[in-house]
Design a protein that fits this description.
Elements: E1 12-17, E2 20-26, H1 36-49, H2 66-76, E3 84-85, H3 86-93, H4 97-105, E4 118-119, H5 132-142
Parallel strand pairs: 3-4
Antiparallel strand pairs: 1-2
Helix pairs in contact: 3-4
């Protein structure tokens, strides 16, 4: 069963292990199909896409190296409706902007760990979620960051 039937970026499902999300999946359901965690993330996704939720509270457990865990924490610290550049994050985490771009592309829990809030210095940059840049634009518009796109 999907956690979100319809959204500006299409249907979404999720995988979870031991009470925490490990992956958001696009266009199909994951192994999370019922129970309290399913109810929580379904409710939060509906509220987020309705513009009523600014920060997810569902527990997440993305796999990754020490750097990736620091990177995920840095993404979660970017406030709703705001953005940083790959260069900003690179400076904060003392890595290259290219490393930040690669880490964004490998983010297994997009939207909830908001890699869509990271932009290139001269444009949108990329987006690895289904729908690519169009999905990134839809998420930024939803959060009121559309002024950055003009």
């Amino acid at each position: 069963m999907l956690i979100c039937q319809s959204s500006p970026v299409g249907p979404l499902g999720a995988h979870a292990i031991e009470g925490a999300l490990t992956e958001l999946v696009w266009g199909r359901s994951g192994n999370l199909t019922h129970g309290p965690l399913y109810d929580q993330i379904s409710d939060e996704m509906d509220a987020y896409f309705a513009g009523d939720l600014k920060q997810f509270r569902t527990p997440v457990a993305p796999r990754g190296s020490t750097f990736q865990q620091k990177f995920y924490a840095a993404l979660c610290a970017i406030p709703y409706g705001e953005t940083l550049t790959y260069g900003d994050l690179a400076k904060d985490l003392d890595v290259s902007a290219q490393a930040i771009g690669q880490a964004c592309g490998a983010n297994p829990i997009a939207i909830i760990i908001p890699c869509h809030r990271v932009l290139a210095a001269d444009g949108l940059g990329g987006y690895s979620g289904e729908g690519g840049i169009d999905a990134k634009v839809a998420l930024l518009k939803l959060e009121g960051a559309a002024g950055l796109l003009i």
